[in-house]
Each structure stands twice: as structure tokens, then as C-alpha cells.
Amino acid sequence: MKYSAFRLIKEALTGHKGWGPQWRDPDPHDAYDYVIIGGGGHGLATAYYLAKEFNGARIAVLEKGWIGGGNVGRNTTIIRSNYLLDGNEPFYEFSLKLWEGLEQDLNYNAMVSQRGILNLVHTDAQRDAARRRGNAMILNGSDAELLDTDGVRAMYPFLNFDNARFPIKGGLLHRRGGTVRHDAVAWGYARGADQRGVDIIQNCEVTGFKIENGRVLGVETSRGFIGAKKVGVSVAGSSSRVMAMAGMRLPIESHVLQAFVSEGLKPFIPGVITYGAGHFYCSQSDKGGLVFGGDIDGYNSYAQRGNLPVVEDVIESGMSLIPGLGRARLLRSWGGIMDMSMDGSPFIDKTHIEGLYFNGGWCYGGFKATPAAGYCFAHLLKTDRPHETATAYRLDRFMTGHMIDEKGQGAQPYLH
Amino acid sequence: MIINHPLLGPRDAQEFTYLGDASLINRPYWLSENALREFHDYLHLRDNPAGLHRELWFHEQGDRSWLVVTRDTTTHEITKVELARDVARVNRAAEVGA
């Protein structure tokens, strides 16, 4: 079923009785050409692009719970292409371009809103770094604009400009960045994949791999054995647990990241603001809630909830940037599990086991990467070669010394 | 989280900083034949278990001792706290004994 204004009018006049389910609920077959483990944004996008762009046939997505129930439903919905390093920026720019055409491509309203992201600077050194980053972005086809204090004041007059310790000296504005309705991304990709024959199998937990002579033959699941020529693992948050079933140890630790939303307010933050003097970022959803977050808790965790010290830290940072925040009541907070990698950058790569491929290590930046991660992972699954924008995301880069460390923190996952 | 320090009693986890898996105590021997591979694995690869995890915490705003905390990563419950010094001695003795 194609969605359109005409269709909406027709359904409105006939009591909305014609809307069917957006995807089927099939039983698994005995075997597939491609099995994608993980029905999150990345897994569903991979299946979609595999079917659409790479003419893949007989594809299944296996999901332990329900699709979109993990990090794609738990993030702060920001999309952007404002990275510094060569290994990253072309990839994220490719992703942002896919976001820009996503709704037409999927025939699905994902509420892609390019409302602009402003990274504030508070010192001369930060302004220099912002200028350098902006130049790197422009060189890679993205957009960047350096604002002075007056420029920031014109956009966001309510910020705490004259903070004695961290005065706002300007900001790097990335106009094409913005937000997306996150659940609709999972649903849109699921619908698009399903229309192209992909079997989306929910409540199907993978319990093991069948590997013989260094080659994967299929997966054991809670719904029986499913044979596969190629298996793609896309389960960020649980990557170490799944790959351990294939005998692999990964350069990843799982950490919990918390996010927050306030009660609904009248529109007052038109874009996304990030603080340069503390880890805090904030936007306002179309429903009016302020959506914000900060640092990870900083210790290994698989519990999808964090602790109070980080809540306090995030709120303190928020208050020092937006004093008006103190008048809003917090509605909800929640936690998601992040694949924190050893250099803060992800992996889209083959493994040493033939037919087994891995996509993960997205730290807390996986949402914005969803379209490109799906596209590049599909490219790798189909052709056995990395997509031109994802050649740096290799599992062996710590051995060869080709780390992609945006922050320069070294192998300290809790600092990325 | 409350960490029950073996010398100081129960302390708030905010007084500590976190490092990671307690296997970081067992630094490879720099002259071993496969030192490059061993140091790569030591520095970058992790078991990252869901469940009991032995990990290093540093009492930065306290007595500046290193602790090995056994904690469940699915519930955050702490079941055991040892001085890292003691754990290192036991590890060393096991190595020499072997």
C-alpha cells in the first residue's frame, strides 16, 4: 500500500478501515541467502538496501524481541554530519544525504527535520578547533558556519551568555543537521524491506552459530535452526554477547547512556544545541518536550538504566547553559546500552569466519548513521568489499595502527 | 552504587573513578615471543560479559587505592570488593606456581 494524501482522504471518508498491517509476520524458512541478526534501525536498513540496491534475494531479519525495541527507540534522535577525521566524515555525510531523501525513498513520514545543530564554543582554543572542524566538514561536502556571540544570541537569546567561567564566545552551526522521528525510521525501513520480500521474524532469539571449517552455515535460534549463506550481525549493545557465540572477543565494552525528556512546552528551542563546556545537548521535540542527554555513566553495564550521579551531572550542565530549564519538570529518563569501542569509532567489517559479517561499535552515535550503516553493510554483504565511505571501519585497525580517534582519548571506552 | 571498601567500609561510587576489566592487572611480558599480539589483545579486546564482571575502580577521592570490584553488569549489584594489590599477588603466585 502506497501512502499519499489521496489515500489519507479516502481512508478518512471510509472510517480508516483500509489501513492494513505495515509488514507481515512470517514464520522462518529453513534457509536464506542472507540472515541479518538484529531488527533495529541498522539491521532493518541493511535488509532494505540489500533487497533494493543490491538485488539480494531470500533475506531474513531475526529479532529477539520486537523490531525497533532497542537503541533506535531509545536515542535522542539527532542526525548530523559534523565529524573531523577522514575515516568518518565522508561516511556521515553519505548518511546525511540518505536522510535527506529518506522519506521519498521509503514513502514514509519519518519527520526528518533539518533544523540545524549549533556546537557552542567558550574559549579561543575551542573556536580554533571549531574552525578546523568546520573546514574539514566543508572539504567533505558538508556545511558549516562559524558564528560569533551576536550570531548565537540572535538564534538563542535565552542562553547563559555571561557565565563567569564559561561565557559563550560563538558556535559552529551545521544547518543541515537536525532530528528525525526515531521509531518511524525502524518502521519505515521494516515496511520497505517487507515490501521487497524480506522476512522480518520477531521473537526469534539467536542462541548460537553453526560454523564448520571456518565457514558459517547458519544460526541456531529459539525458533529452530535457520541455514544461511551469509550472516550479518547488527546488534549494537549486545555485540560482545552475540559474537562470543562465534568465539570472538571484540574491542568493545557495553556502557549505559541515559537520556531525558521534559514535560511538553511551547516552542522555544528551534534547533539542536550542544554545550562546549560540559557534555550536554538539547532539542525540543514536535510534541514540545525538551529532549536532552549527556555523558555515559562510565562503567560496564547491560542494565538499560543508569544511576543518579550522571542524572545530577547532566541537569547541572543543562542549568548552567539554559537557566530556564529549571522551570520545566522532567517527565521521563531512560537508559540504552552502547557498544563503546576502543577508539570511539564503529566497525563494518568481515570477520575471520567466512560468511560472518559484523556491524557494531557505534558508541552513542549510531542513530545518525542508520541509513549509511545499512547501505554500507549491505554493500559489504553483497560484494565482500567495503563501501568507499566505510573502508576505515575495520576490526583489525588496532593491530595495524589505523585508529579513528576523534577525541584522541586512546583505548579508554568510558571516555569516548 | 555503594562500594564496600575493604579498609574504609561502604563508600559512594562517586568517590571512585572506573578503569575497566580487572584483567588489565595482568600485563603481558614485554619480551615474550608474541608480545605484539599479546599487548594488542591486552589493551583492546574485552570479554565484556553480561553478568558478573571483575573490574578495577580507583578510590581517587579517598585513600587512592585500586580495588577489584565484582559487580553484576545486568543489575549493578556489587558482590565482592578486594584490594587490587591482593589480587595481583594471588595472580603472580599462580603464574610462578604454574
Task: Give an account of the 3D structure.
The complex is a heterodimer of chains A (416) and B (98). Chain A has 416 residues and is an alpha/beta fold. Chain A has two domains: 217 residues, FAD/NAD(P)-binding domain, CATH 3.50.50; 154 residues, D-Amino Acid Oxidase, subunit A, domain 2 (D-Amino Acid Oxidase, Chain A, domain 2), CATH 3.30.9.10. Chain A is 27% helix and 26% strand. In chain A, strands 1, 2, 8, 9, 10, 11, 17 and 18 form an eight-stranded mixed sheet that branches. In chain A, strands 5-6-4-13-14-15-12-16 form an eight-stranded mixed sheet. In chain A, strands 3-7 form a two-stranded antiparallel ribbon. In chain A, β1, α2 and β2 form a beta-alpha-beta unit. In chain A, α2 packs parallel to α7. The N and C termini of chain A lie far apart (43 Å). With 98 residues, chain B is α+β, with helices and mostly antiparallel strands. Chain B has a single domain, classed as Folate-binding fold. The relative contact order of chain B is 0.22.
